[in-house]
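Exercise: predict the structure of this protein bound to zinc ion.
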Amino acid sequence: MPLPAFVAPSARSGKVILVCALSSVCAALIFSPQHAKHSVDQDDAAGAPSASPNREAADTARAAQPAPQPAAPAPASEATPQPVVRSATIKSSFAEAAQRLGLDSRTAALLAHAFSGEIDFRRDLKAGNTISLVVDPPEAGNASAQSQPATPLAVRIATGSTSHELFLYRNLEGKPFYYTKDGASTTPAFSRYPLAYERVSSEFALRRLDPVTHRWQSHDGVDLAAPAGTPVHATARGTVAFIGRQTGYGKVIVLRNPPPYQTVFAHLSRFAKGLHRGTQVRRGQVIGYVGSTGWATGPHLHYEVHVDSVPKDPLTVALPGKNPLDATERAQFAKEADRLAALL
Ligand SMILES: [Zn+2]
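Solution:
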């Protein structure tokens, strides 16, 4: 393919602006091998993460409740032992409060992860915030069960004026997940940003005058300015579909993420060690480092998100939550969540 005319950045009087000269032509080059098949995988495609807006004020809810003392399981009725509510006020950290509530470290970590889309436990939790749990009642006749760590059926964290609730869902293998009342996951499966950037130096644009090639071209991604050497993270799990050099992109990595997503990371100074075509990467894994290889006038990451092979604005594209429930599960789950929420 004929290369677009390349104008050396130095020709432009030393002005330090970060530009990116990646045309849709180059993008097509990179993506052509993967165009073939993309069935929409419902598990991954559906449902952008949505925080449940249905938050009642913690204080009101609390006032209406009797003191959440564990209702001792009624000895007479074997039929349906009532779940137990436990509450703790945070003194120093979530981990410490979780321990007082009888949660093991694994469950505490699971909850921290589950809430991470809504609450940053280190930043947002303060002394005096409260955690309430609904747990299964201890098994009748088993005294030691009282001290056994439980996986809570429902968790409410009240931070000042707002409260956040998540409810337990177990998949067929019994693996625990937490969702909001309406069945949405707050655990991001896809991060918005692949690095800690300083500013957006060039936005996504369908058509713009390219400062390097002096042609009208689309800008299929976003340019995130950051110092050379800043680590670049995979924004979702995926497989390395391309790693190497491409005209314009310089050192570039293309990840095939859960369908229908693909992501592109360009102008890297170097790649993370051990990556090659076919390598599986986790969300958050460092895959390379910011640079200015290819057509770039300064260090920045050119980042693209493709949905069904169509480039979308990475700053606004809808990103999926983790393991969304299907419609039937969602209806059942919402019913059960309502029941548990009433106990909190
Ligand atoms: Zn760019």
